[in-house]
Amino acid sequence: MKPVTNIDKFLKRFNNFKDGEFRSIEVSSATTMLVTLAGQDEARAFDWIALKLEFTNVSDARLLDNAKLLHVDMSDGISIIKEDNSIIFGIGQYNTFSSVKNATCFIESEHIKYEEDLF
Prior knowledge:
Elements: E1 2-3, H1 7-13, E2 21-29, E3 32-41, E4 47-56, E5 60-62, E6 78-83, E7 86-91, H2 97-100, E8 106-109, E9 111-117
Antiparallel strand pairs: 1-9, 2-3, 3-4, 4-9, 5-8, 6-7, 7-8
């Protein structure tokens, strides 16, 4: 896994996962979660790719059942916002840290890493 060092560049590379697929959420421990998404990768001529996001030191979350994830509307993509020593991930387009907490699904953590996978 590689750390996400520049959130804006990361989201631009995958077009915020707009019209992508939300594949799974795995709770590894009380403070670690793994999210799998699929989207188009600008670095690969917009070829589809699966991506695993690992959130560590999770402090707050609202999760969905994996059975419901295929029905999540991803037309607005995802938001990832960094504020102080926290990162928040949410489904939908949001501009502020606190607004992401209104998302149908969000994860607040200290760190985020990613790993590319086959589509």
